[in-house]
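so im writing up the methods section and need the Sodium/proline symporter PutP record in one place, dumping it here so i stop losing it
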Amino acid sequence: MDSYKLFNWGLLFLTFGLMIYLGFLSSRMMKKGDEGGFLVAGRSLGAFVGASTIVATGFSGWGFMGSPGVTYQFGAIEVLGNFFFAPAMMIAVLYFARFLQRKAADMGSNTIPEYIAQIHGGGNMGRLVQGVAALITILLLLVFLTSQIKAVGLLGASWLGIDLTQSALLMVGVIILYTMLGGLAAVAWTDTVMVCGMSVAAVLIMVQIFGSVNLGEWEASLNAIDPELLNPATGGPYGDSVATVFLVLPYAFLFAAVLPFMAIRFLAFKPDVKLHKAGVYVAILGALLSLVPLVGLYVRAQVPDLADPDNAMPVYLEQFMPPALEGLITLFILFAMKSTANSLLHTVASATSHDLRLAIFSHAFKSAALVLWINRFAVVILGVVALLMMLYAPPFMLSWLGILGTGTLLASMIGPVFISTFWQGSAWGALVAMLTGFGTSGYMMLFADVGWLIGPLTGCVVSSVCYIGVSLVTKRVAFQRASI
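--- predicted struct ---
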């Protein structure tokens, strides 16, 4: 093992120790048997920590590995698409977080499926809605988690000089440990450390790229390879029209406001947090990280024959960064991927141990300490399941699999979570909306060649119409029965 590999291993174990320590501190901050502390960090997140965990989770492995790969293959259209996430997240924090935070706190909601059930009346029908929301969340976020584990495993393998299986096992093992210890508080605090490293990595990458390339020669090289890299005639992966890339803005807003692993952060903010400050932090951090996909264009000009576009970032680090900086930046990128992986794992485990438990058994488990250990045990089980899914999954493009999971989940949840903010539907409306959104988006992503955004957004429209339509019908029927 050469000196640089030893340096990389040293960096890794140093940060592993820090993450585990933060998980341990978070576990001590929770009261004994405090399930709310595990699920929503005791509603204790301040503006900077809350903003940091939102940005770290939103950009993550997709931003540092998937997006440069998409840019390498499709060109500058992805740089524009990626940029829309920063303002979209800021808008979600400024104009949606407060309502969700206060409403959930009033009802005592500790997860998004529980919030959906409670806002639609609770009772036996609410338990059914909560259970269906939990099952959809588990299935689709396990798909997304699979892509995140592959991303972190691929990068860690090349960085440490080990194979994919060993790398994924090592990274996932540490994520399981600190998430199990401290729940969402551990996830948020480790995300805060991680997003600081991610920001440093973005700055170093931009300094290297713009310090080593002549912009005119860069443009000429890309045009010689494929003129559509800089002047696209289509929306690339997003659809046939160039205009379809602008759909990323509403998609990204709903991504931040509706998806359970993102929206749960809104539930975890302090009651008196200044959300305008959080919005400013989100905008600054998000804008900085939005520059990272330029790596794809840089590598396309320098190494135009990559067999796998998802290797754009690893090839960039290996060939164009000094070894010491390569190791440091790779560590920060691993931070990025782990920041989403830990959020997904926490959300999937919460949906299993909390939402499915309440949907099936109601309040059969009375011991708070036992419930907390059920939550922690679920983190271990679901982490192992996601690792096995990654090891045996067929080849896939990281960004596509991520949008399959998050886009379909977004289509399922838009009515019960977002539209219910402005217009209150019924439990039947919520149930039908989730199922139709799931079916529409999933079918279009898997079997229709319509681009990456058209399927989820079409699913959102169908789900929203069903939410409103079914709710109106069921409310009318209920009113007629009450009048007889």
